[in-house]
Amino acid sequence: xxxxxxxQPASVKPLGVFVPLRIAITAEPIPSHVSALDYVTGxxxxxxxxVALYAPVMFRREAQRRGVEFHRAxxxxxxDFAVQQAASEIWKESxxxxxxxxxxxxxxxxxxxxxxxxxxxxxxxxxxxxVIAECSDLGAQLAAKVLHLPVCAADNGLGSVLVxxxxxxxxxxxxxxxxxxxxxTPVLPAMLTPAPAQWFYETPPPSVRAVRRTVAEFRTxxxxxxxxxxxxxxxxxxxxxxxxxxxxxxxxxxxxVYREVMAALSTLGCDAIVSAGELAKDLRSADPRxxxxxHVPQPALLRRAxxxxxxxxxxxxxxxxxxxxxxxxxxxxxxxPDNAAAFARRGLGRALELTAAxxxxxxxxxxxxxxxxxxxxxxxACAELSQLPPLDxxxxxxxx
Length: 400
Known about the structure:
Blueprint: E1 22-26, H1 33-36, H2 38-46, E2 50-55, H3 60-66, E3 69-72, H4 81-94, H5 96-125, E4 130-134, H6 138-146, E5 151-154, H7 159-180, E6 191-193, E7 208-210, H8 224-227, E8 235-239, H9 243-246, H10 251-265, E9 271-275, E10 290-293, H11 298-301, E11 307-310, H12 314-322, E12 327-329, H13 336-345, E13 349-351, H14 358-369, H15 372-386, H16 393-397
Parallel strand pairs: 1-2, 1-4, 2-3, 4-5, 5-6, 6-7, 8-9, 8-11, 9-10, 11-12, 12-13
């Protein structure tokens, strides 16, 4: 694996003396994406490095919860109603492939210049030893290139989409911005990913390096109300993601899916927890076995659940693997439909179209709950995930 790195020689450190690295981690304004980078943040802190998160202000609290320094960079542009509305309309009218081209081939490149300028200013003043840029943070990647900083991309789940669209859509959209900064053709940096590459990449690029996945400790603790409520019935956990419920123009679509899932659940002999974010207040359950909440610590809950009905986000699927919980995947957009289909092919659950009706959803949930082969496949996948090598930043910087 080769980082994009500075032509300048690194300073020589005395042999046998640990010198903490100044590691800059960057994120873009998608609600779950700081959590998706815990596999980078956690090991960096554990190994004693100085870690700072450079991200929009929406992540200030997330940085504090993880004990890392926060620097504001970029804006919360994904929260803009006009941006959400335009993207949602393309998704509803044209489907997922045009949506991806619009989001990653236009919106993200359009935002890269402002993010790059913020980071060039910050990193000129206080130069990091290593940049770990969220893979979709095109501005951070450019800033590191301009300043000749070693940089590696961290797969947030969108790596496969970026790789597929890089040559046709993303690089051409970035070329003018790179030229403004005196840079040559945009190149996606070498990438870290917290899972075996073949799980999510149809043809894994040679620059992808799989490393062990970790999650923030506070996300592994069950809330008291759940820890005190054991039941002999199977437990089904439902979550269709954070961005899907935060985007106002998608709420009606996703809300309808939640209602179909809840109707299916009411026909099964199980308990259920439905985590619906901003939609929770609009979802009512007359069935006392179905509890609707805004949020729960997902990794903790999936260690107890028997089935996970999910939108198929990469981080959510890996939470399921680490909890050995089979899935019914209902992909919404971006990488999610392909992820759900890939997990179904591996025998880790079933995949359904987002338009599936309650009867089809109930049949899929019954099939997964009633067949132990899905749980056995998840247990094997969990073992495979745990065997990945830990992320060593000193080795990474040295080009190992």
